[in-house]
Amino acid sequence: MLSNKHPNLGTLSVWAGEEEYLMQNATQVPVVHSVSFGYKNVDEWLQVALGQKSGHIYGRNTNPTVHVFEEKVRQLEGAEAATSAATGMGIISSTLFTLLSPGDRVVSVKDTYGGTNKLFIEFLPRFQIEVTLCDTIDHEAIEAEVAKGCQVLYLESPTNPTVKVIDIARLAEAGHEAGAIVIVDNTFATPINQNPLHLGTDLVLHSATKFLGGHADALGGVICGKKELVDQIYHFREINGATLHPMAAYLLLRGMKTLHLRIRQQNESALKIARFLSSHPVVERVFYPGLESHKGHEIARRQMRGFGGVLSFELKENTFEAVRRFLPRLRYAHAAANLGAVETIAGPPATTSHVECTAEERAAMGIPESLIRYSVGVEDTEDLIADLEQALNAIVL
Ligand SMILES: *Cc1c(COP(=O)(O)O)cnc(C)c1O
């Protein structure tokens, strides 16, 4: 344990999980590729197998490098326990299939990540699990659905791609009154900006692929919360085999050492860029919780320490053709299906977050055809603004 009782989030980003040397006093966490762990002492092996002694048996279940990653996120989220998976979807599907059974009901919102939405509309119903998706920011409607009874209330805030904000404390209370397990996908906020467990939820999860890793070179997923729940999810994940690879865990750990620095810069840049875009004549609307005009601004101010590194905006010319002309003009942005990296990344939902959905489904979710999701990297803010300005100016000429 860290000697300081309440270290701050930056110190935790650097040190959490890494207080002890694992091998030969190496100061950096070793990448343990070994699939199995050997025991000369059979009694010790048995104790580890029975969970009476800490240790590792087989790599699909646990691994020392992966454990350090889980421990870092656990401490950043202020959780009792954490477990991981190979991807964000790996942890989301493991969680939902662990906690739900035929005849159960889950309440969620329309704006969840595209893959999560697919689980809700395509896969869970095949197992006789009833799914109700509410309008994302209609808190009364969500409360009413939850009050009818459900086993899981699944939330995401801010959402992808229009960065809507949900009042987590309010809905956690509603969920608990109905006896539901309340889960939040905290990928967009990161533990630097928001800790859903402190707002009363039972579980918080991340696609570590995004901001946690921050360098777009490793996939991963992680969930934290009550030990009793996390243990059940771990048990399902060790059986379904969606295990986080030790090399990916190492890359995620390395990225997380600068999490607080990156997020601080991205929060600051995103707000300036959102203000710039709001004043540009070619831009119809900007979605960013840091803007006073954003519907969820007051809630975001209450529950977040920063507004995050993702914003989206709609072009005045609301066609995919406008996106086709605009995107290639950006010099400092990968046109790619990712977010949360050190490089700026821009893309339309049709090819990124909602690639799994049809154009009609996107329209039903209120996602305009000319929407561009812009994940701010750690480049200098003025360079990003200049880049956006030249690309926006060019599409009107
Ligand atoms: C990317 C993402 C996911 C899925 O994560 P993968 O690591 O790609 O499986 C889940 N939720 C949100 C909010 C995401 O952005």
Q: What does it look like?
A:
There is one protein chain. By secondary structure, the chain is α/β, with parallel strands linked by helices. Helices cover 39% and strands 14% of the residues. It is built from 15 helices and 12 strands. It has helices at residues 9-15, 42-49, 64-77, 88-99, 114-123, 139-147, 168-177, 190-193, 227-240, 246-256, 259-278, 297-303, 320-326, 359-364, 381-396; strands spanning 81-85, 105-109, 130-134, 152-156, 181-185, 203-207, 221-225, 283-287, 310-315, 334-335, 345-347, 371-375. A 7-stranded mixed sheet has the order 1-7-6-5-4-2-3, with helices on both faces. It has a 5-stranded mixed sheet with strand order 8-9-12-11-10. Helix 3 runs parallel beside helix 10 (246-256) and helix 4 (88-99) packs across helix 9. The termini are far apart. Pyridoxal-5'-phosphate (PLP) is lined by residues 87-89, 113, 115, 156, 160, 185, 187-188, 207, 209-210, 219, 221.
SSE layout and pairings?
Blueprint: H1 9-15, H2 42-49, H3 64-77, E1 81-85, H4 88-99, E2 105-109, H5 114-123, E3 130-134, H6 139-147, E4 152-156, H7 168-177, E5 181-185, H8 190-193, E6 203-207, E7 221-225, H9 227-240, H10 246-256, H11 259-278, E8 283-287, H12 297-303, E9 310-315, H13 320-326, E10 334-335, E11 345-347, H14 359-364, E12 371-375, H15 381-396
Parallel strand pairs: 2-3, 2-4, 4-5, 5-6, 10-11
Antiparallel strand pairs: 1-7, 6-7, 8-9, 9-12, 11-12
The CATH topology of the largest domain turns out to be Aspartate Aminotransferase, domain 2
Number of strands: 12
Calculate the terminal CA-CA distance, rounded to whole Å: 60 Å
Question: Helix segment count?
Answer: 15
Which stretches are low in confidence, meaning pLDDT under 50 for 5 or more residues running?
A: none
The CATH homologous superfamily of the largest domain is called: Type I PLP-dependent aspartate aminotransferase-like (Major domain)
The portion of residues forming beta strands comes to 5-15%
The largest beta-sheet arranges its strands as 1-7-6-5-4-2-3
Please estimate the helix content.
25-40%
| Helix/strand order | HHHEHEHEHEHEHEEHHHEHEHEEHEH
Mean pLDDT value: 95
Compute the gyration radius: what is it?
A: 21 Å
Which distinct ligands sit in these coordinates? Answer: pyridoxal-5'-phosphate
Number of domains: 2
CATH architectural name of the largest domain: 3-Layer(aba) Sandwich
